[in-house]
Every structure is written in C-alpha cells, then in structure tokens.
Amino acid sequence: MSALTLEPILKGRRSQPHMLIETLLDVQESNGYVSTEDMKIISRELGVPEIEVYRAANFYKALSLKPRGKNVITICAGTACHVRGSNLLSSQIHGLLGIGPGETTADGLFTLEQVNCLGACALGPVVVLNGEYHDHVTPAKLKALILKAGGQEKQAPGKKRTPVKASARKEAAACANGKKRHSSGKALKS
C-alpha cells in the first residue's frame, strides 16, 4: 500500500504509538497482509521504531507478512490435536494442494497455517477454515471442506492431475455428513 492508500487508516492515529496494533490489524483487513512498505509508513506516521512495528506484525498470528490465499486453513498442532491426528491432516493438505504450513498455492486459492493451540483441545483435531471452526476433523471431512471451499481439488507439483469425479465429491460429502457406510451397511462416523 502507498501512503495515500493508508491515509484513511492513519487518519486520527498519527503520532500515537499506542495505536500500533489497531493500525496493523486495519492494514491486514484492507490489504490481506502487512507489507514491508506498510510497516515503514506506519513506523514513520505513528512515531514507532521500525523494529517495533516488525516485532508486533511478526508476533501476532492474526497478522501476515506475505499475501494469504483466498481460503485460509489453520490446523491446530497442539498436543491434544496432534495425538488425535492433526499431523495426518497436514500431510493430506500437502497431498491435495501441494503446500505445507506457511505456504500458499500458486493460484492463490489456499494458504495453510499451523498454530500451537486453538484452545479447543477437547474437540481435536480442530481445523479453522476462513474463520469457521471445525471439530473432530477427519481426513475425509477435511477433503470435503477443501473441495467445497475451492470448488476443485489441487494436486501436488509433479503429480499427474486428475479431475475430481462427481462420485468422489459425493463420497467426500457423505463422509462429512456422517452418511458413509461400511461394506456391512453399518453407518460410519467420520
């Protein structure tokens, strides 16, 4: 963002260092991330040393220093979620989208973030998709969420791309809704 673009955000906040976090959050909301140029302008206008602006922007998980995808997937990697399989969910995202934690797909559709705890340990593994919490997430449930959010499956680089078949979408949706059945006919929980 340029100084002109930041003008509405900075209005009434100049020379007020205590407005740093609020200003950074507003830039994040407006631009999707906080750029180096944004931090320099904020530093100058609020009278806060650049290193302090960078520290704050780098410390808070709500702020990003690089552009995020249209859909942000956050996976909890806390102990409770980890023992319930959150690492499998991260691996599945890598297989489906070809990205790891902190990365964004080349088309800008998805960003994967991993956090130490989301504070919902009894509901693990927990995944947040675009601010919406999903509890007890299984690989099937996660795949259904990704398909719904992106409209189509992504493939890891170097792998042959195969279109997602309607039957696979129905199966993923059935798993997410708890309607998948075992060969015995018994309903499976996902």
Topology:
Layout: H1 3-10, H2 20-31, H3 36-46, H4 50-59, E1 71-76, H5 79-83, H6 86-97, E2 110-115, E3 127-129, E4 132-134, H7 139-150, H8 166-176
Parallel strand pairs: 1-2
Antiparallel strand pairs: 1-3, 3-4
Helix pairs in contact: 2-3, 3-4, 7-8
Description of the structure:
The protein folds into two domains: 3-59, Arc Repressor Mutant, subunit A; 71-160, Glutaredoxin (3-Layer(aba) Sandwich). Strand 3 (127-129) and strand 4 form a beta hairpin. With 190 residues, it is of the alpha+beta class. Strands 2-1-3-4 form a four-stranded mixed β-sheet, covered by helices on one side. Residues 153-190 have low confidence and may be disordered. It is built from eight helices and four strands, in the order H-H-H-H-E-H-H-E-E-E-H-H.
Number of domains: 2
Determine the number of helices (DSSP H or I, runs of at least 4 residues): 8
Percentage of helical residues? 40-55%
* CATH topology description of the largest domain: Glutaredoxin
Strand order of the largest sheet: 2-1-3-4
What separation lies between the terminal Cα atoms?
Answer: 44 Å
- Quickly give the CATH architecture of the largest domain: 3-Layer(aba) Sandwich
Helix/strand-derived category reads alpha+beta
Sheet with most strands: 4 strands, mixed
**CATH-assigned homologous superfamily of the largest domain:** Glutaredoxin
CATH class category name of the largest domain: Alpha Beta
- Shape by Cα distribution: elongated
H and E string: HHHHEHHEEEHH
Proportion of residues in β-strands:
5-15%
Question: Over the alpha carbons, how many angstroms does the gyration radius reach?
Answer: 20 Å
What is the total tally of β strands? 4
Mean pLDDT: 80
